[in-house]
Specification:
It is a multi-pass membrane protein. There is one protein chain. By secondary structure, this protein is of the alpha/beta class. Helices cover 47% and strands 15% of the residues. It has 36 helices and 29 strands. Strands 11, 12, 15, 16, 17, 18, 19, 20 and 21 form a nine-stranded mixed β-sheet that branches. Strands 1, 2, 3, 4, 5, 6, 7 and 8 form an eight-stranded mixed β-sheet that branches. Helix 16 packs antiparallel against helix 17 and helix 29 runs parallel beside helix 31. The two termini are 32 Å apart.
């Protein structure tokens, strides 16, 4: 670690802080801007004084585990701030917000009172009480489902906050972000989001984006505390230059170390997070399904009204024509209440609040399983969107390759050494080895460590730098000996724009300033005019020699899939005595422009670094091609390296002539398409669009590899592909990849090598940085669509049959074949139980054998309509047979023991109807598990979902118990063994008929569209008929509205408290 010390103060010279609140006050924005915070740190003894009071050390950090624990106990831990999850009883009360259930409960109360008046207290209460119990069961099961789902999402959010960070505890160690304590010395670099509040104690070229916390878009320059204390700044300068690093802000440039002063909920970010609601907004699929639910709800409401009118018509006929009873009697009132309850219950059954529930369950189940398969989902919508992805723009390093770097080729002293030859030091002069190794050690920020037991390197930090440091170590040069505080004058970190890193050091022997540079070999070679030849002699580097090195070294290494890094240096001779000494030399070197500091270089060496291809990448890319997904590699490597690796991966086909634009460089691509210009979308908002889409379309049809690509090129490519109507997934690891990750339909960040900014911009984090994990996301994304389609197949069938039979029975029989209690049980089966059973289907590998879904595809496909219509026709036919013809063929007389009790004469017939109806839904759910047109066997993948069979078994057991023992409560009669078998036969017949219906050609169903599929905007979802009738289905949407209110509070706190 590099460290400059501020002037040491005696313990008596500084104040002591007494509580955490004093440290909190240091990070108030007004105090920082006015210089009050800085003066407070001075009074507390500066950076060293604070470190001492925190039992830490600026060089060694906290060097004992006991002290770490003491600081944790005293100042708190760094656990993520979470909103308090909803309690189970709160979710139960929330479900009682359902408008229809409230009306049903009131009606049930009136029915109970009338029943007690008519029949007495002994039996009159049963019907109303049973409805109360049924409603309570529905609410409890739904609330329990939501409770488990919320807990699962909470665990996933905790996983998102569980990153790794490097701190100094005796030496550089890597720990979880949650383990940071006050007093730690934390290392940071470009792209990092600060997880804690702290004081910068060392660093160079630090620029920070504080807009997430302060709202200001300007880049804020940061300097170490001791540098500011040695310079004179007016109070207004502290606004733009300060040593205070605020949690939640981003490091845009530079690297350094900070003393941690606040963790967890005491940080600025922690205080703000307490205001935020972390609920997820509705996904696009949920919005589209809300449109389907709206149309089904309208149909159900119409049928409910017509059913109520029909029953009222029969009542009026009985009163005024048949004169069976008077109008203003308790019996009439009871019939009106029963008809009203049936109408309300039809709405409860018809409005499919289970659709959003099914999506939620499918997402919760999928994200949990995806986490087990190395996909950490941040944005729930990305799961389902990935099912339609048809383009993947992938990084090379760490995604297609293993990100285990090793120098396998080295050009030095005008000679190439390969593999084991590199370690034979006798072939290379000590002078050349020395200057190369010194350059590697000084001009790097990675901190690899060697395991003492296995003697193997653990690569911590940039893997390319780790490979070079390991090379220097093999030559006997320890990097820790060269990163000394009295030698490093200036450091310009590597950036994707510059493609190089520069470090200036002071040579104490002759007081010269030496500039070390490393980076992309073509760029460094172009800036060199000498090179180190035999025995360390410097030789003039003319154009002929440059061309020789370019073709025989750089391109030769690149053709072997090696990343080439050039290492160079130059000495600045002191022009006067004025720059003698460390301070003067440092001031002098900082005055040199970045573009001028590394010109006229001497080339030392060119390293060829091997990053092996992941063993399963070739198979994964073949699978993508088979699945209709085009994989494009976008890399910063030169075109020969990129082409070689693409051939090895299978992105490019071997032994085939390349098309004109199949492999292209970023600059060429940018020049051809003309970059981005301002345009407008369908809503009239201004957006960036590709200037020349005609050329872009021609390139995109052929392009598979983009070499020497900048982040801007990647963003341009993604913008154009989306403009063409593609669904695009992008992988990225660097800070500058963030715009492309954000622009993509699904952004994948690397969990191991990815910067905090990339992870923040991404939708899914690949925990293992592996391309094959993207296939996993694609598989689960397609499976979510399949699960929802299976559920829709089932629910639409139940809906159509239940609505038709309720209306038919009311018109012809003067009663609904299913009473209110029975319909509530059916509602529980078709919504909560079915969503559990069908939305948790595991994916089949066959989902990857078909083309991805398109943005414009209908959720309910022609194949599904065939299944729905076929199953509905069969069930309606059977139920009409039971309702009107069954007594002609079997004995349906009321059992002797029920005669004289309050049972209708056709109770056995209605019980068979109820039993057959439910069992047909159980068997139909088996048929609905198959979406594939070609799979006619309904029992395919029979045992791959145990939860499905558990749910169906519970349904059948409860149904049989209701029939056999729930007589006076559910208004049914127990059935004989033969009658049970008959109902099972009717149910099983549905499976046989579903197989027969699959022989009907799909094209006959192309024009069937029972329901519109319009995506409803989030802000309009609470205005739909469905939402007004049944608040439960959209209850979660109110959290997004509360989030907007919380966001206003957040901004207010940002401006006032900060």
């Amino acid at each position: 670690m590099q460290q400059q010390y501020s002037k040491q103060k005696d313990q008596k010279d500084f104040e002591e802080f007494h509580n955490i609140e004093e440290l909190k006050e240091l990070f108030l924005l007004n105090s920082i801007n006015d210089g009050i915070s800085f003066q407070k740190v001075v009074k507390l003894g500066g950076d060293q004084g604070l470190a001492k009071q925190l039992k830490s050390h600026l060089l060694k950090g906290i060097d004992s585990e006991a002290q770490v624990q003491e600081n944790r106990d005293k100042f708190g831990n760094n656990d993520p701030v979470e909103k308090e999850p909803a309690k189970l009883w709160e979710l139960i009360l929330e479900c009682f917000g359902d408008t229809m259930l409230q009306i049903l409960l009131v009606a049930a109360l009136v029915s109970t009172i009338i029943g007690i008046i008519n029949e007495g207290i002994k039996t009159g209460w049963t019907e109303g009480a049973t409805i109360f119990l049924a409603v309570f069961l529905i609410v409890s099961i739904t609330a329990g489902n939501n409770y488990l789902k919320e807990r699962q999402f909470q665990q996933l959010r905790r996983k998102l906050d569980d990153g790794l960070i490097q701190v100094v505890r005796g030496g550089i160690v890597e720990i979880s972000v949650k383990e940071i304590v006050v007093g730690d010395i934390l290392q940071f670099g470009i792209g990092d989001i600060f997880p804690v509040d702290g004081l910068m104690i060392q660093g160079s070229q630090i620029k920070v984006d504080e807009s997430p916390m302060t709202g200001e878009s300007d880049e804020i320059k940061k300097l170490p505390f001791n540098e500011i204390s040695q310079q004179q700044f007016s109070s207004k300068d502290h606004h733009h230059i300060s040593p205070f690093l605020i949690s939640g802000t981003r490091c845009l440039d530079g690297n350094g170390y900070m003393l941690v002063l606040q963790v967890g909920q005491n940080t600025i970010q922690g205080q703000l997070k307490q205001l935020l609601n972390q609920d997820n907004p509705p996904t696009p699929l949920q919005q589209k399904l809300e449109g389907v639910a709206e149309n089904i709800g309208k149909l159900g409401t119409l049928v409910a009204i017509l059913t109520f009118i029909a029953l009222m018509g029969h009542l009026l006929i009985d009163v005024f024509i048949d004169h069976k009873h008077e109008l203003f009697t308790l019996k009439s009132l009871q019939l009106i209440i029963e008809a009203f309850m049936i109408g309300v219950t039809i709405i409860v059954v018809a409005v499919p609040e289970g659709l959003p529930l099914a999506v939620t369950i499918a997402l919760a189940y999928s994200v949990g399983k995806m986490k087990d398969e190395q996909n950490l989902v941040k944005n729930l919508a990305s799961c389902e969107i990935m099912g339609g992805a048809n383009n993947i723009c992938s990084d090379k390093t760490g995604t297609l390759t293993q990100n285990i770097m090793q120098v396998t080729a080295l050009w030095i002293e005008n000679h190439i050494y390969l593999n084991q030859e590199i370690n034979i030091t006798s072939k290379i002069s000590k002078q050349s080895i020395g200057i190369m190794s010194e350059s590697i050690c000084c001009n790097s920020i990675a901190n690899p460590t060697k395991d003492r037991d296995s003697n193997r390197w653990i690569q911590i930090g940039n893997k390319t730098e780790c490979a070079l440091i390991e090379l220097a170590d093999n030559f006997g040069y320890k990097y820790s000996n060269y990163r000394l505080n009295d030698r490093i004058l200036r450091q310009i970190p590597f950036s994707s724009k510059r493609k190089k890193m520069v470090t200036a050091i002071l040579n104490p022997q002759n007081q010269t300033i030496r500039i070390f540079t490393k980076g992309a070999s073509e760029i460094i070679l172009a800036q060199c005019f000498r090179y180190v030849s035999n025995n360390g002699a410097e030789v003039l580097l003319d154009k002929t020699k440059k061309d020789d090195i370019l073709h025989n070294v750089i391109e030769n290494f690149a053709s072997q899939s090696l990343r080439t890094i050039a290492i160079a240096y130059k000495d600045l001779e002191p022009q006067s005595q004025a720059i003698k000494g460390f301070v003067n030399a440092k001031a002098h070197v900082h005055q040199i422009n970045e573009d001028e500091i590394d010109k006229d270089l001497t080339l030392i060496a060119i390293a060829g670094i091997k990053d092996p291809i992941r063993p399963d990448v070739a198979d994964s890319i073949r699978q993508c091609t088979k699945s209709g997904v085009k994989v494009r590699m976008v890399t910063g490597d030169n075109i020969i390296t990129a082409q070689s690796i693409a051939l090895e991966c299978g992105i490019l086909e071997k032994n085939r002539a390349q098309q004109e634009f199949e492999v292209i460089e970023g600059k060429t691509f940018r020049d051809l398409v003309g970059g981005l210009v301002n345009g407008k979308n369908e809503e009239g908002n201004e957006i960036k669009v590709v200037k020349n889409m005609q050329i872009f379309s021609k390139i995109s049809r052929e392009m598979k590899v983009m070499a020497r690509a900048s982040p801007e090129d990647k963003y341009l490519l993604v913008t154009g592909l989306i403009q063409e109507g593609n669904v695009v997934a992008v992988t990225g690891d660097g800070t500058n990849d963030a715009p492309a990750l954000k622009k993509a339909d699904v952004g994948f960040a690397m969990g191991i090598t990815g910067s905090d900014v990339a992870k923040d911009a991404a939708d899914i984090i690949l925990i293992d940085d592996n391309f094959s994990s993207i296939i996993t996301a694609m598989k689960w994304g397609r499976n979510i669509y399949d699960c929802i389609r299976k559920f829709i197949q089932f629910q639409l069938t139940v809906n159509l049959v239940a609505l038709f039979m309720s209306f038919t029975g009311a018109v012809i029989l003067k009663q609904s074949p299913l009473n209110a209690i029975q319909m509530l049980w059916v509602n529980l089966i078709m919504d909560t139980f079915a969503s559990l059973a069908l939305a948790t289907e595991p994916p089949s590998i066959k989902v990857l054998d078909r083309q991805p879904y398109k943005r414009t595809d209908q959720i309910v496909s022609p194949t599904m309509y065939r299944t729905i219509v076929g199953a509905s026709l069969y069930q309606i036919t059977i139920l009409i047979f039971i309702l009107f013809l069954l007594p002609k063929y079997i004995d349906c007389q009321i059992p002797q023991e029920l005669i004289g009790q309050n049972y209708p004469q056709n109770v056995v017939q209605m019980s068979i109807f109820f039993q057959a109806f439910v069992l047909m839904q159980v068997f139909n759910s088996i048929s609905c598990r198959q979406l594939d047109y070609h799979t006619r066997n309904p029992f395919a993948n029979f045992c791959n979902n145990p939860l499905f069979w558990i749910v169906q078994t519970i349904t059948v057991i409860v149904q049989v118990l209701l029939i056999q023992y729930g007589g006076k409560y559910v208004k049914v009669s127990h059935l004989t063994f033969f009658q049970h078998l008959l109902c099972i036969a009717f149910g099983f017949g549905g499976i046989i008929f579903s197989i027969l219906f699959k022989f009907i050609p799909e094209q006959f169903c192309q024009k069937i569209h029972l329901f519109k599929e319009e995506e409803i905007k989030t802000e309009k979802m609470d205005d739909t008929l469905t939402s007004k009738l049944r608040r439960k289905s959209t209850m979660r949407l109110h959290t997004s509205q509360r989030s907007k209110h919380d966001l206003g509070s957040l901004k207010k706190m940002s401006s006032e408290k900060l």
